[in-house]
Amino acid sequence: MSVDLWTCEQRIRADGFCLIAGIDEAGRGPLAGPVVAAAVILPDDMPECGINDSKKLTTRKREALYHDIYRYSVTVGIGIIDPAEIDRINILQASLKAMAFAVLNLEPGPDYLLIDGRFPIPVELPQEALVRGDSLSVSIAAASIVAKVTRDRIMGRYAGEYPEFDFAAHKGYPTRAHREAIRRFGCCPIHRKSFGGVREFLTPRP
């Protein structure tokens, strides 16, 4: 774990806050599946285990760190917004809502939030939004790992329900193979019907 990733947490603790939650989401870009957010509060004495931005890690390393984070964290919260709600309120609002749910699922609750991205979330707590926060804060990086692994597992389960779309391989992202499957089979219930690449092919699934 890079010492630099603790800089934000150390600064905030110096201001008197104790329970600092990092929040991140996974799944803004896919054409199918939910958006999943995680909130993580790490202890001051978190063991060195290589936490980093989830996008910089292999699948195997993310899985190992997922277990370490759950093992050592003070608390972890998850928030999930399904495709129908994404279509109703748009992906940005769905992502912020998922993050808020993740925070509300923390026990004990946090006293300060570090959020990946540009926008605050609808929770009445002191908070700070950090662009590329998963590369700046160890708590956000931990949340990015939990969110990514959680969502990947969800999409793996959907792969069994809708095998023609091969969700286990691409996790709903707009790969060439996924786009071709949509053209061939139409959309399934977990596709985001408001997204380009789906709305053009809204033939009901047999």
Can you walk me through this structure?
The protein has helices spanning 7-14, 59-72, 83-89, 91-104, 138-161, 167-170, 176-185; strands at residues 20-26, 35-41, 75-81, 112-116, 127-130. It has a 5-stranded mixed beta sheet. The protein is globular, with a radius of gyration of 18 Å. The protein is of the alpha/beta class and 206 residues long. It has 7 helices and 5 strands.
How many H/I helical runs?
A: 7
Question: How many DSSP-defined strands?
Answer: 5
Please summarize the sheet with the most strands.
5 strands, mixed
Order of helices and strands: HEEHEHHEEHHH
What order do the strands of the largest sheet run in, or round the barrel if closed? 3-2-1-4-5
Radius of gyration, in Å, reads 18 Å
Low-pLDDT runs of 5+ residues are none
Report strand %: 5-15%
Shape: globular
What structural class do you assign from the helix and strand content?
alpha/beta
- Average pLDDT metric: 95
Specify the helix fraction band.
25-40%
Gap between N and C termini, in Å?
Answer: 49 Å
Chain-wise SSE layout:
Layout: H1 7-14, E1 20-26, E2 35-41, H2 59-72, E3 75-81, H3 83-89, H4 91-104, E4 112-116, E5 127-130, H5 138-161, H6 167-170, H7 176-185
